[in-house]
Write a structure and sequence with these properties.
CATH topology of the domain at 45-131: Nucleotidyltransferase, domain 5
Distance between the termini: 99 Å
Structural class: alpha/beta
Order of helices and strands: HHEEEHEHE
Number of helices: 4
Radius of gyration: 26 Å
Number of strands: 5
CATH architecture of the domain at 45-131: 2-Layer Sandwich
CATH class of the domain at 45-131: Alpha Beta
Length: 144
């Protein structure tokens, strides 16, 4: 009896279509993520320096509120009034109880403008507020 000759093994081929689909989905995901992260770094805001500032862990759904040197409030590169910011934060709090906010205030902004934004966060029942700072630049020792 010849059992081996009767069964033929067919050569399996690698299916490329599903792999190409996954690669394109990953590419789209990273491009969209990069474009949202880019909004916050393109703003011309010079945050103050702090030696004791720590880099916090990024939280899911955190919102970054920028206050530029002119005192304008920006979220995702969109200028908002104080009432619009309060409305936006109230909508976010409905979906997430412990909404995180990172406040990036320019070093030239008057302190009362930063306090107004903090009051808006407090009015929206947001208690998880962090301040963005930079590390101080190392100073060169004076040469004699």
């Amino acid at each position: 009896m010849r059992f081996r000759a009767a069964t033929r093994l067919e050569k399996t081929e690698l299916q490329l279509a599903p792999m190409i689909d996954i690669v394109f989905l990953l590419l789209i995901f990273f491009l969209i993520t990069w474009s949202y992260a880019r909004f916050e770094t393109e703003l011309d805001i010079s945050v103050p320096a702090a030696e004791q500032g720590a880099t916090p862990e990024r939280q899911v759904g955190e919102i970054i509120v920028n206050v530029n040197a002119a005192g304008e409030i920006l979220v995702n590169s969109v200028k908002l009034t104080e009432a619009e910011l309060l409305e936006k934060l109230n909508r976010l709090v409905r979906f997430r109880d412990n909404q995180a906010v990172i406040l990036r205030g320019d070093g030239a902004v008057p302190y009362d403008q930063i306090v107004k934004v903090l009051d808006i966060c407090y009015s929206a029942k947001i208690r998880n507020v962090a301040f963005a700072t930079n590390r101080p630049k190392p100073t060169k020792p004076a040469s004699n």
